[in-house]
Structure formats: C-alpha cells, structure tokens
Design brief:
- The complex is a heterodimer of chains A (about 240) and B (about 375).
- Chain A is α+β, with helices and mostly antiparallel strands and about 240 residues long.
- Chain A is built from 6 helices and 6 strands.
- In chain A, the strands form 2 sheets. In chain A, strands 2, 3, 5 and 6 form a 4-stranded antiparallel β-sheet that branches. A two-stranded antiparallel sheet of chain A has the order 1-4.
- The termini of chain A are far apart.
- Chain B is built from 15 helices and 8 strands.
- In chain B, helix 5 runs antiparallel to helix 6, helix 6 runs antiparallel to helix 7 and helix 7 runs antiparallel to helix 12.
- Chain B is globular.
- In chain B, the strands form 3 sheets. In chain B, strands 1-2-3 form a 3-stranded antiparallel β-sheet.
- The chains are: A alpha+beta (about 240), B alpha+beta (about 375).
- At the A-B interface, helix 1 of A face helix 3, helix 6 and helix 7 of B.
Chain lengths: ~240, ~375
C-alpha cells in the first residue's frame, strides 16, 4: 500500500484540522457552567425537594383514609403488598385492617397500585433514602396487628378527602428505625397471622403472654405469634 | 462448545481461544464472546448469551395483562418506552380498543425522546470503545437533561412504565412543553457540536470506515432491523412503511447509510445513521408538540381485561430495531403465551459470520456499532 507524498501531506493536514476542531469543542466546555451536583452533601436544598412531583419513591399509606378495599394488593404484579382486613370484635359492623405490609425491598416502583386507589391513600413519595443493614427492615408495616386501624368510609358529597401531607408519614417511619437496627432472623416473608380474635375474655390474657413466649422461641421455628414481635417499632 | 475446544489444538499451536467478557467493559452488559484468534486476527467470535436471562416471557404467562407492563421496562433498560408501547399495542389489538388521539401523540413524543436518549448512549459508548473517552461524557450530559424531562413526565428515569393498555398514564406536566422545546434547540446545536467533535474527526472516520462491512443482502438475510439495517443501505423504517400510532401525521426523513467513510454498511455508516436519526426524532417531537390534539388519555379498559381467545402480533420501530410482541390469549386474565422479538438478538446472530478476518480490536467496534444491549438479547 503506497501513497504519494501529496496524499500523505493531505492526510496529515486533515488529521490536524479535525484534531483542532475537536479541541475547540473540548476547550469551549471550560467556559460553561457544570451541571453536576455534589450529592449528598454540599447541596443548597435536599434532593427530595428538587425531584418532580411524579417521582416514584417509597410508597406511603395514609391509614386515616384507607378504605381497606385491597385494590392496590390486587394490582401489584409482584404481590409486595399484603393486606388483611377483619371484622372488629367489639363492633361487628366496623372492619379493621390488621396488616398492611409493603415490602419496599421487593417493590419495583411501577406505580400500578396508586392508580386504582379510590381515596388516594396509597401514594408514591419523593423519599428514596433508606439504607438498612437488614433487608427485612425495609418492610413498611402501616398497620399494627395489636392496634388495627378502622377502615375509612367515604362520605358522599364531601368536597375532598383529607389526606396527610404527602411524605410526612414515610419520614416518620424512616426516623423510627436506625439504619443498623436488628432485623428479623428469617429471610423469606412470613405471612403474618395476627392473634385470632377471641370473643370476650382471652385477649387481655393472651397479649401479655405473647412477648413472654417470643423470647425463648426466637431462634427455632417461628410460630405465628412470635413472628409479629420482632417487627414492632422499638423506641 | 466442545468442537471449539478441539479445534484449538491445531498442529502448530498457533490458534488461541480467548474469552472476551463476560465482565469486559466494552461488551455493553454481561456478554461473553469466545474468540478464536490467530495472533491479532480472529478466526471467529462466537457470542455466548444468556447471562441476563430473566425469563420475562414466562413471567408474562403468570401475571395479568396490565401487570406485565412494568416488566416490559426490563426488556431493554435503555429504551423502555418502546417495549411499553409494543406491549400496549399488542394487548390493544387483542382487546380491539381504539387509542385516543392525544394518547397516541404522547406515545410518539415519549418514544422519540427515548430514542434520543438511547442513541446518545449508543454513540457515546461507541466513541469510548474506539478510544475517545471525552465524547461519552458529553453524550451522557445531554442524556441526563433529557432524563430529567422524562422523569417529570412519568416519574422514573429508566423504568418508565408510562404507557398503559389503551393509552398513557399521565398527561404532560405544566410547563413541560416549553422545557422540551428548549431542550430540542439545545440538542440540535449539540448535534452539530458532536459532528465537529467526533463524527468528522479524521482519525475516527479512518478507524471505522470499511471495518466490519455488512452487505445489503447479508443484513436482510440475518433479519437485522432498525439503524443496523439502514446502515447497510436498506431503506426500511416501520414508522414510515408500516405506520402505527400517530406516525402517519408527521413528516420526517429516514436516514440511510451511503458509505460516508468508505463502504456502505461499515461501522461508520451504522454510527452516523444514529446521529442523523436523533435530528429526525427532534423534528418529529416538534411536530407532535405543535399538532397536539385535546382529548382523553386512555380508552375505557377494565382493570382485569379478559380478551377473547386469539393471537395478535405488534411491531414497532424501537431504537435497536424492530420490537415485536406475539401474544396468544386463551380467554383468561393472563396471556397463554407471550413472545418478544428484539433487535439486539438478531444483531448478535450476525457477529459470528462477520468476525472472521477481523482484528480483535475491531470486534469491539462491531459490537458497539450494532448497539447490542445484553438484557434485550437475553430477556
């Protein structure tokens, strides 16, 4: 492969020319303002506040306006939401939610559960920082099996449904647990069975008994009742 | 595989079997190539795929029709909008739903924005694989700005899950239209800058011109599609030739490779077709924003659609070629069978036959110019 001298000189000239074209673009970048931000520190405002409102972060459930319809549970393609609704033993007409667990470690933040919610109780927030040493601590338990919350009944003709400020409840929940809190010992999500609703007397006797039974039975074969205990928010 | 190991023991011990990948930085995901080399020249390169197989087609048989939409995002993480749209169109054909006009326009806009982000990554990584590291940084900068816009539209930067069966999830946010128009002005000037920076660079053109030529007949035989097919000089674009959605309303050109740096169908042609396509996408988005009609965002679809028994196919022009879904329904809430045809898988097939005689370093250029994305190959 031989080339003449003029071709050779032409090649060199083209290369040098295109080299300087490229360099002019690169050098012009020096004068421009950088668009990178120094996350997580050296920020003027927190990143959560500059995210767009549609950002799909952690799911938040406003338990005051949850109707217990379980539409979100059915819509979830990976069933990371578990809801149990039972009748209130005291008032048979009132239904209560005894379990509302969202496994945020499993959640793929698709937003399909938000769409069917009739009251806007379940919503995505702009919170996304929740590092946990134990992955089981990322299960957000919105209902307390001991103190279940009653379902909300939509008032007909009401102009709006009062909702807690978006993100406030998730922030509370995240603040409750330190990042290195001890998680439960088992890994697969155990379907929680709340204590069976006994008719009259047994509940006061059963409730104090449960924590006592939990301690010896912690390591082997978690029985349904002790399984509830390790996930209670500890002060 | 066993045949390959046997061939390695040639008489003069000149040939060598090298594993290229799966953790190689220039393989665009977890890809493995078994490269049979003689010195610096390849005898052949055999793609070994399957590292990112997540059985997405099988999952489709287990979840209900609307619930599969987030999974389609994972088919191709760089161009999730197209996977969304293809699946939505397939189910709509199964349910015989007409999509509202406004939703079709929003689909076109979101898809074209996604095409720009995908091509920016493609051309940026291609320059990096060849050895020019700077352009990738500029490409990713432009892409981040566009990701912000997509995040404002649908709430996520990669796994959009924006399209729904029968329409789209959200309308444009307030002030979004002006932001997109401002961004497109910026993009048009940055494409010119890009041309000055790398496309017209003499070293770059000489490096890619005439390398790994895929002839017109070969490209058709192997079922290449999208920019890879057009880079080989075949004038075929589903948006124009088999129009779907709102595309008949827009006028745009289809860039076709014509040997800008040497031979038709070389690496440079496939690269430059993508650069030109970004400009055309920008043109489509401008037209769509201008003509945007009012109306509903979604057609009326039940939460648990139960289509009649039957089978449908949908084809759309994705950033990596034709994306086709084949759906079989047996009249229940879940598909009986779901099949996705992706462009990268077809592009991987041609590598084994193009590779003989290439240098090992040219394999990197070939993979980058075919724009292979591993999750799309394996699904």
């Amino acid at each position: 492969m031989s080339i003449t001298t003029s071709q050779y000189v032409g090649n060199v000239r083209d290369t040098v020319k295109s080299f300087w074209h490229g360099m002019s673009v690169t050098l012009s970048q020096v004068l421009r303002r950088p668009i990178t931000i120094q996350y997580p520190d050296r920020l003027e405002i927190p990143v959560q506040d500059v995210l767009p409102p549609r950002y799909r972060g952690f799911l938040e459930v406003d338990t005051d306006i949850c109707t217990g319809c379980q539409a979100c549970e059915r819509a979830c393609p990976i069933s990371c939401i578990q809801i149990e609704v039972e009748k209130d033993p005291a008032n048979p007409k009132q239904r209560v939610v005894t379990q509302f667990d969202i496994d945020e470690a499993k959640c793929m933040f698709c937003g399909l559960c938000v769409e069917p919610c009739p009251t806007g109780s379940i919503q995505h927030t702009r919170e996304f920082e929740a590092t946990q040493r134990s992955v089981r601590n990322l299960v957000f338990r919105w209902a307390d099996p001991i103190k279940p919350f009653p379902v909300y009944k939509v008032v007909k003709g009401a102009p709006y449904i009062p909702r807690a400020p978006l993100g406030s409840r998730v922030k509370d929940l995240l603040a409750q647990r330190s990042w290195d809190a001890v998680g439960t010992s088992y890994l697969p999500p155990e379907p929680l069975k709340p204590p069976p609703p006994p008719p009259v007397k047994p509940p006061p006797a059963a409730k104090p008994a449960a924590p006592a039974a939990a301690k010896p039975a912690a390591a082997p074969a978690p029985a349904p009742a002790p399984a509830v205990q390790p996930d209670e928010p500890k002060p | 595989m066993s045949k390959l190991v046997l061939r390695r023991l040639d008489r003069n011990n000149e040939e060598m079997l090298i594993n290229f990948g799966p953790q190689h930085p220039s393989t665009h995901g977890v890809l493995n190539f078994l490269v049979e080399t003689d010195g610096e020249v390849m005898r052949r390169a055999i793609p070994d795929i399957g590292y990112l197989h997540r059985s997405l087609e099988k999952i489709g048989e287990m979840v209900q029709y609307p619930g599969y939409m987030p999974y389609t995002d994972r088919i191709d993480y760089l161009a999730a909008m197209f996977a969304n749209e293809g699946y939505a169109i397939a189910v709509e054909r199964l349910l015989k739903i007409e999509v509202p006009k406004r939703a079709q326009y929003l689909r076109a806009i979101s898809c074209e924005l996604n095409r720009i982000t995908s091509h920016l990554v493609s051309i940026g990584t291609m320059a990096t694989d060849i050895g020019a590291v700077t352009p990738l940084v500029y490409a990713l900068r432009e892409r981040e700005l566009l990701n912000d816009l997509l995040e404002a539209l649908c709430g996520a930067r990669l796994t959009y899950n924006y399209h729904r069966i029968g329409g789209v999830a959200f309308d444009m946010p307030e002030g979004w239209r002006d932001k997109v128009l401002a961004y497109l002005d910026r993009l048009d000037s940055s494409i010119q800058e890009w041309d000055r920076l790398i496309s017209t660079n003499e070293i770059y053109r000489k490096r890619l011109g005439g390398v790994a030529v895929i002839s017109r007949a070969q490209a058709i035989d192997y079922g290449l599609s999208g920019p890879n097919l057009r880079g080989s000089g075949v004038d075929w674009d589903l948006r124009r030739d088999v129009p779907y959605g709102a595309y008949p309303d827009f006028s745009f050109e289809v860039p076709v490779g014509c040997g800008w740096a040497g031979v038709v169908g070389d690496c440079y042609d496939r690269y430059y077709v993508r650069v030109l396509e970004m400009a055309q996408s920008s043109r489509i988005i401008r037209q769509a924003l201008e003509k945007m009609p009012d109306g509903e965002l979604t057609a009326k679809v039940s939460r648990k659609p139960k289509p009649e028994a039957g089978e449908v196919q949908s084809r759309i022009e994705s950033a990596r070629g034709e994306l086709a879904y084949y759906l079989v329904s047996d009249g229940t809430e879940r598909p009986y069978r779901l099949r996705a045809r992706t462009g990268s898988f077809m592009a991987m097939g041609i590598i084994e036959d193009i590779s003989p005689g290439l240098m090992v370093a040219d394999l990197v250029a070939l993979i980058a110019s075919l724009d292979v994305v591993a999750p799309e190959t394996d699904r």
